[in-house]
Specification:
By secondary structure, the chain is α+β, with helices and mostly antiparallel strands. Helices cover 37% and strands 34% of the residues. The longest helix is centred in the first third of the chain and has 39 residues, at 2-40.
Length: 264
């Protein structure tokens, strides 16, 4: 009886031992294949080249924008507001005649401030208190940003603002309504430039280019920024001032890319 159980224990031992041996062989085989793969494909960190590329694209601006303000000084807030409102409505009415829509006209600031003057105070031989601050009405200012979608009308809009009572006109700027297309064109040129450099470098090194393992892009759109300042009626301007000629020039988009290639 004991011999029978001993033989059974031996059989179970060899059975489990065989399974363990098979699993061990499979494990070793997997590790060996992984090691061979690593040998055939060296570490990315030690088998890459990094190149830079630059591209530029140009486009004629199709939107002009500028800011203007209307200010008035009066003895009461109401009178100053009425003055500013009247002039602002006249300017906006002229803009509507150019086809500028309400969505392209936006108030950026509206302020009311008290105004003061200094009255002299008589001095004595031993004491002089200086001037005295005295209330002298109020200043109301309404500032507006306007977008002109027909750049040919930019000069007319500036002229209308000055002629109708704007006290300050500034920050004329030309932009592109859809900059993504221009940015994409500049980026494509930058990528082509980088790829050309990579091929030349790979040939010099005696290696072949593989897949792209890293990419970064830095696109920049400086564009022309025209400063324009004008004085309106009562501050040196003239109602019949000649419409200014406003050249739009071209906007330039620059793209700088960095590409990391795997090499073989």
């Amino acid at each position: 009886m004991n011999e029978y159980f001993d033989r059974q224990e031996v059989k179970r031992f060899f059975k489990f031992g065989s399974v363990a041996l098979i699993l061990f062989v499979v494990f070793l085989g997997a590790k060996t294949l992984s090691a061979l793969k690593d040998l055939s494909q060296p570490s990315i960190a030690n088998s890459t080249i990094v190149v830079t590329g630059q591209g530029e694209a140009f486009a004629t601006p199709d939107i002009a924008s500028f800011s203007f303000s209307v200010s008035a000084d009066e003895k009461t807030v109401g009178a100053a507001q009425d003055n500013v409102t009247s002039k602002t409505e006249a300017i906006l009415g002229a803009f509507k005649g150019l086809g500028i829509e309400d969505k392209d006209i936006r108030t950026t600031d509206y302020s009311v401030y008290p105004k003061y003057t200094y009255e002299p105070v008589y001095c004595t031989a031993s004491y002089c208190p200086g001037g005295k601050q005295v209330p002298d009405g109020y200043t109301v200012t309404h500032s507006i940003l306007v977008k002109v979608r027909n750049t040919d009308d930019a000069g007319k809009a500036l002229s209308f603002a000055g002629a109708k009572g704007a006290t300050n006109i500034s920050s004329l700027n030309f932009t592109i309504d859809d900059p993504d297309a221009v940015t994409s064109e500049a980026r494509d040129k930058a990528v082509t430039d980088a790829r050309t450099k990579a091929k030349t470098l790979a040939k010099s090194l005696g290696v072949r280019l593989g897949r792209v393992v890293d990419f970064s892009d830095n696109s920049y759109t400086p564009g022309p920024y025209t400063m324009y300042r004008a004085e309106a009626v009562g501050m040196g301007g003239a109602v019949d001032a000649k419409t200014p000629t406003i050249p739009t020039g071209e906007n330039k988009v620059t793209s700088n890319v960095v590409i990391t290639y795997e090499i073989r």
